[in-house]
Amino acid sequence: MHRVGGRGMVPVDVRVVAATHRDLAAMAKAGEFREDLYWRLDVLKIELPPLRERREDILPLAERFLARLSLQLGRRAEGFSPQAREALRGCAWPGNARQLANAIERALVLKEAPGPIGLGELPAEVTAPDRASGPAPTGRALADLVRALEREQIVLALKRARGVKSAAAEALGISRPTLDRKIEEYRIDLFE
Questions:
Q1: Where are the domains of the chain?
Q2: What is the Cα–Cα distance from 98 to 104, expressed in whole angstroms?
Q3: What is the mean pLDDT of the chain?
Q4: What whole-number distance in Å separates Cα of residue 108 and Cα of residue 72?
Q5: Residue 41 pLDDT exceeds 50
Q6: Of 105 and 7, which is predicted with more confidence?
Q7: pLDDT tens digits for 146-180?
């Protein structure tokens, strides 16, 4: 390979992994995708059906995400309640594994009590997909939901800022003293 502006060859060994939901062969035939690029990519095809068609994979994936995210976030959960497991299995997962991972991360952030993740920590699109844009299915008062959301956003901002409070406060659009007060109010442990 020649670098731009370079004079000599640079040896490289590259593997490309690409994913798409489009029919690239048909697009290449129609002139909508470069045929030479298609043939470079078409070495090994792996057809992977969407998560909704692989229900048996949902709970093992959820448990894997829970283990990984628990370490990343420094938060523990003892698996999933039976109701949460049923909700996870019953969701259509239009966002596939990425949506599942996001739901698990949100549940960990919102989790306040020890024990397994329950329905109350899972997002509405998982627990009641037909009512996801409507009222929250947890039956909690609006003030409780607002507090849970505020706590979640503070924890996420602190995580993204790697514990630097001034950076987290700036990202949240609040002052550092306000952030300190909220950390104390919500009993957020920076070293969890």
A1: 141-192
A2: 10
A3: 85
A4: 11
A5: yes
A6: 105
A7: 888 888 888 888 888 888 999 999 989 999 999 99
> Could you report the per-residue pLDDT of 3-15, keeping only the tens digit for each?
888 888 888 888 8
> Which tokens in the block code for residue 12?
């490289």
- Calculate helix-pair angle for 82-90, 55-73, nearest 10 degrees: 120
Q: What are the residues facing 80 on neighbouring strands?
A: 117
Residue 187: other Cβ atoms inside 10 A: 8
Name every residue whose Cβ is closer than 8 Å to that of residue 44 and which is 6 or more positions away in sequence: none
**H helix count then E strand count, the chain:** 9, 0
Q: Do 118 and 86 contact (CB within 8 A), yes or no?
A: no
- The reported pTM is 0.56
| Res 35 pLDDT > 70 | yes
What is residue 145's predicted lDDT score, i.e. its pLDDT? 76
DSSP characters for 94-119?
Answer: TTHHHHHHHHHHHHHHH--SSSSB-G
**Fold held by 141-192:** Arc Repressor Mutant, subunit A (1.10.10)
